[in-house]
Design brief:
Oligomer: homodimer
Shape of chain A: globular
Strand order of the largest sheet of chain A: 10-11-12-13-14-15-16-17
Largest interface: A-B, 127 and 126 residues
Number of strands of chain A: 17
Mean pLDDT of chain A: 88
Distance between the termini of chain A: 54 Å
Structural class of chain A: alpha/beta
Radius of gyration of chain A: 24 Å
Helix content of chain A: 25-40%
Number of helices of chain A: 22
């Protein structure tokens, strides 16, 4: 498996260099397209399409690493250059001075643009600068712009600002686009997102300083490529891996990591509860180009042999430091679940369904004390700040069924999440908030609105939400439906749900199906919230489809292998890839073919 | 295959009799549940859950029919008893008098409640009367109702009216519920639906008379069980079958029909374009307990050997009559695509993607004449009215890509669909309107609003809509996302999309995956629009899940076979079905188990 190269057909790996920080080289995948072929025999070039790439060095055909050695330490020099960290006795980095935490938030608040910030700005633009500016260079003035040019602009993407809106803004000129971080898009209906025409490092810095976004990047995880989580950027997705007492082993988990990031997981959570938790995590971290999240209480409880009565703050604190020193980029801590909320779950349809939530709830019941995550929040934040571990404030009382959605227990915890968010920010910690769960469609907007309001616009990170309870075996889809809607409204990251959810442990194919499903859900939301780079890929794929460029259609899709496989099941011959019809309608009834004839006339 | 019995585990078929029309026996499936087992050893019965059943006699273990003989003529006597039809020379029924068309709409307008109307009222209630009334019988007055009773009511379903809202309505008493067709639910956010607490035959009649709903039920398809399409009822789903020039045969198509209705297709469209179109359809109709839709122009063009220049009104008219005489319940006709709209598609990203639309567009270009469906609309409606064939006004200019969504061509046709709707209604014809297609999430509400406004609330029937173009191989999911949202907003029926969409012809497993996916999307919308019977199944499944009644959890799901299979992959032993933990967390970390312990204390 270590030698299995996971790459995409018709694609090449490119690296886009930084300007402020020339050492920054942002990995992207470029899908190369065939020429358009017209009925008169003429041809036209199609520009390659750049797509977001989570696979890191594993997706670079020129990288010949090996999982035993781990990945190169991409960020080691950037971290060292800041001169604010020191190695402890065992070589782990930690803040040299607790007053200046080495967090992206602390830098942003001081006005510093880090290499990490420039990395994500370039990453979010996806090479769209050129496509966008090409139109403007051709038609610099709105007054001289013919209707056709306007149509071209409109076709460039739903997320594109209409020129009238752009030019109404004082000081606008196409040439200055790259420097206009404050240039807003039109505000699309149904979303709380507002994005600039082009991302700049300064815009990224400002979003992080405002708390609306975070770059999970532990100083002890230099292998990670920077990525940003915030509603004014691409919606991200997380995939869970991790062994349990029942099943799974270390090799499988690392295979799942590489597999998950190949298909597009932006972060990965290691939820191991079985044996060798530390070693599993070490292996995952050293091989992961994406941020790794954990739920430290799982390991803390394992240290107590599963006995909640033996759990204590010191055991948890030591476990948290262990995670921080290893390089975990964000941790889930269920600090918002207060003692007085627990009785409110007793009459729920499905009680407490969060593992972490039920552990701390039981601890509070046994000890008749307040949640120790809550009472030790300041100390927790100090630890996190010293390593730039981001906090993902858990939702221990998330609803586990449609019947429990948006109930008192859930919303009471959300309010405390807001309080904890502000405290963590004050310590320089980067923050996001976790959310449900099972929520029917009509209650999702209320949940999103309250999170934005009560948690001061900190990024929301939800599991699903699952829009119905009645489809076990298809819960990747019930979750993608809810996920799309909450992401459109402003949720920054979706935790995937596999089709095995509620039933069993996901295998390799389940991870693929789950990641791709959430990727398409997040993308549907990106279109709807107007991410400026989102629609170019849809447009390129639609054009390839209309022109019967089958290979391009496959290669531009989220899962080229499956698209090709499904096509070949019906039309296996290689010349069918050039056929000007497809298997659904056959040659006599092909709508696309007839439609192309219409175009020849008008 | 004819002998293969397609049934669900742990379920039995029941028939609920009518009151106004005692000969009406409404088929439902009842899922029987195990007892709840509490830690102290006590048990509690769980009431069986009634679910909507589309499978007709094929799903009744006591039915021993055979596809060669076809299904019993359930509605033959009801039709005959109305005395307004006569057999033509070849035995097909037709209106005895053109002035009194034998359509459900004509009856509704005359104030008549047909057996078909009573059938669908009972079908939509799903035995919920008893569950709902049980709560009210226990606590007849809101004033004496303790908080616990209020909580129980809330848990009974999101769609349930809050007692305060119910009782604020003059004349309300719990005992009169069954007669209160005008009793509105609270209006849930984000939907245009308003449903009564209980469906009555009179409510159904009024919805049909208003044009907000239809019962597709050709007088020559007496085998069909009545079902209703309208936004104030369950959202329905359609599955397409049909052979093409490339592939598929008659046996496969009928197998797909039985398979599709087993999984929950409410209607089936036969889109055959290959050989033996007439015989394929005859076989499908005689074996179908669900309404069958067709696109007659496909066969008309086949009669012209695929040459659009040979197509003409007389050929189409004869084909339409052929479909009507055979028993087709609804037909798609692309009458709203006017000649002047065609040039507006030339600069689209994906032109015209509707097969029927591209055929008539090409005909108009070749003949330089207006769409003959439009110019012969009155004659078309007269034919449809004579057999109670419902019209599904096609959307020949639906967008085939995100880039083309809600463009001029699409909306121009939608406006004409509204005009045609009114004309058809005036002729007594039952009407629905077809819609897109590919639409990004933020443009779906606008599309739905305009359809309701311009088409006078006639039911909307959409294909998807697909929320992104970039996921071929997963388009059942991109379509389910858009479908859920448009159904929540008021779309009455979703046409399924399989994962082979854009790529190839669906096989048996693709049909299953597609139907179940759309079923869950429609159900998510039913929850969100407040269908009073929707949430009971979620609640029953959630309770089974919380109590580790694994068999009940499987049996209550949309696809019990898959749920069980996924579970058994991880925990294959039969005693795992009684285990108080599941494979994801293992026994030490089980949140549900911990949560049950909390319940024992509070």
């Amino acid at each position: 498996m270590d030698n299995e190269q996971l790459t995409y057909p018709g694609s090449r790996r490119i690296y886009v260099p930084g300007t402020l920080h020339p050492q920054v080289k942002v990995a992207m995948r470029e899908v190369e397209l065939e020429d358009s072929l017209f009925p008169d025999g003429s041809t036209e070039k199609n520009a390659p399409v750049r797509v977001y790439d989570c696979s890191g060095p594993w997706g670079d055909p020129d990288f010949h690493g090996d999982a035993q050695k781990g990945l190169p330490a991409l960020r080691a020099e950037w971290i060292a250059a800041r001169g604010d960290t020191a190695a402890d006795a065992d070589g782990a980095l930690v803040a040299a001075d607790v007053k200046t935490p080495p967090t992206q938030r602390a830098y942003a608040l001081r006005g510093i643009v880090t290499p990490e910030m420039e990395y994500v700005a370039i990453r979010e633009n996806l090479g769209r600068e050129s496509a966008f500016k090409a139109v403007y260079d051709k038609f610099p003035s709105a007054k001289s712009r013919p209707a056709e040019a306007q149509a071209v602009l409109d076709e460039l993407g739903t997320g594109m600002p209409r020129p009238s809106e752009l030019e109404a803004q004082p000081g606008f000129s196409p040439q200055s686009l790259a420097h206009r971080a404050d240039l807003d898009f039109r505000h699309l209906s149904g979303t709380s997102a507002r994005m600039p025409a082009l991302y700049t490092p300064e815009y990224v810095r400002d979003e992080i300083a405002a708390g609306r976004a975070l770059i999970p990047a532990n100083i002890n995880h230099p292998e990670a490529e920077p990525m940003i989580i915030g509603r004014n950027f691409f919606c991200k997705i997380n995939a869970n891996i991790g062994n349990s007492a029942i099943s799974s082993n270390l090799e499988e988990e690392v295979e799942k990591l590489r597999w998950a990031i190949h298909w597009g997981a932006d972060t990965v959570m290691d939820l191991s509860t079985g044996k060798n938790i530390h070693e599993t995590r070490e292996w995952i971290l050293r091989n992961s180009p994406v941020p790794i999240g954990t739920v430290p209480v799982y390991q803390a409880l394992a240290k107590c042999s599963g006995r909640v009565d033996a759990l204590s703050w010191p055991i948890f604190r030591d476990t948290l430091i262990e995670h921080a020193r290893q390089g975990v980029d964000y941790v889930t801590i269920h600090a918002g679940l207060l003692e007085r909320f627990v009785p409110h779950t007793a009459r729920r349809a499905t009680g407490i369904v969060s593992r972490g939530g039920s552990i701390i709830a039981k601890w509070m019941m046994l000890n008749k004390q307040e949640n120790f995550f809550y009472t030790h929040w300041d100390e927790i934040c100090d630890i996190l700040a010293a390593y730039d571990v981001a906090i993902s404030i858990g939702d221990g009382l998330r609803p586990g069924s449609i019947a429990d959605a948006n109930d008192f227990a859930q919303l009471a915890e959300l309010e405390v999440q807001g309080e904890l968010t502000r405290t963590a920010w004050a310590k320089g910690v980067q923050v996001m908030n976790e959310g449900p769960g099972h929520v029917p469609l009509h209650l999702i907007p209320e949940n999103m609105r309250k999170q934005l309001e009560w948690c001061a616009e900190a990024p929301f990170y939800t599991l699903g939400p699952l829009a119905t309870d009645i489809a076990p075996g298809y819960d990747h889809i019930t979750g993608a439906i809810g996920g799309s809607i909450i992401a459109q409204r402003g949720c920054a990251m979706l935790c995937y749900v596999t089709r095995k959810e509620h039933l069993g442990l996901p295998d390799r194919e389940d991870v693929r199906e789950g990641v791709v499903t959430y990727k398409l859900a997040a993308h549907a939301a990106d279109l709807a919230k107007g991410h400026p780079a989102a629609q170019l890929r849809d447009n390129a794929l639609a054009k390839a489809r209309f022109e019967f460029r089958w290979n391009d259609q496959f290669n531009l899709s989220l899962d080229p292998e499956r698209a090709r496989q499904y096509h070949d099941l019906t039309l296996p011959h290689s010349n069918a890839k050039k056929a000007h019809f497809c298997s659904m309608c056959g040659p006599d009834f092909c709508a696309m073919k007839l439609s192309q004839e219409i175009r020849e006339i008008y």
